[in-house]
TrEMBL record:
It comes from Clonostachys chloroleuca. Residues 162-172 have a biased composition (Basic and acidic residues). PANTHER family: 8-OXO-DGTP DIPHOSPHATES NUDT15, NUCLEOTIDE TRIPHOSPHATE DIPHOSPHATASE NUDT15. Residues 151-172 are annotated as: Disordered. This is Nudix hydrolase domain-containing protein. Belongs to the Nudix hydrolase family. One of its GO terms (cellular component) is cytosol. The lineage of its organism: Eukaryota, Fungi, Dikarya, Ascomycota, Pezizomycotina.
């Protein structure tokens, strides 16, 4: 049996819900153009959890890699069970996605497109604005859609289950 993950194994991912330091009702979304899955949909910064990595650390790392922003994870909002189906059963992807609330460390920082093959733009959006986009036919990346379905209102997104750095399980 191979030790490398396949499309038929459950993967673990994170998303970073980064609130705008200048307008706390807005959070960062990006237009996904990656060909792997979720092409042409609005997403949150995020990605795969590395071996022995804490989900908060993953959210901070992925946010920086994808946007150039330095963020601090506040805590986990919730997790979602996301199954991406395709016409070809060999392309089914299944993720458990941990959604992490994050704050910007520099209020004046501007998100950058650091992976132009994966994301075409970053913009600040409110929950209501994102829900309106969806009603107007714009697609949301499945983990983001699941997050909105599982939570109600912006306050629930802003008030995660806070964990201290000491609870992360890292060796000092």
């Amino acid at each position: 049996m191979s030790s490398s993950p396949s499309a038929q194994q459950v993967q673990v991912g994170t998303s970073a819900l980064i609130f705008n330091a200048k307008n706390p009702d807005e959070f960062l979304i990006g237009w996904r153009i990656s060909k792997s899955h979720g092409t042409n949909s609005w997403q949150l910064p995020g990605g795969h959890l590395d071996l022995e990595e804490e989900v908060e650390d993953c959210a901070e790392r992925e946010a920086n890699e994808e946007t150039g922003l330095n963020v601090k994870a506040i805590g986990e909002i919730t997790w979602t069970n996301d199954i991406f189906k395709n016409e070809d059963p060999s392309l089914v992807k299944h993720y458990i996605t941990h959604h992490i609330a994050c704050e910007m460390l520099e209020a004046d920082a501007v998100p950058q497109i650091t992976e132009p093959d994966k994301c075409a733009e970053w913009r600040w959006e409110t929950r209501e604005g994102l829900e309106k986009r969806q009603k107007n036919g714009e697609e949301l990346f499945l983990p983001l859609e699941s997050l909105l379905k599982k939570t109600s209102g912006t306050d629930q997104l802003r008030n995660p289950k806070v964990r201290s750095d000491g609870a992360r399980g890292r060796e000092q």
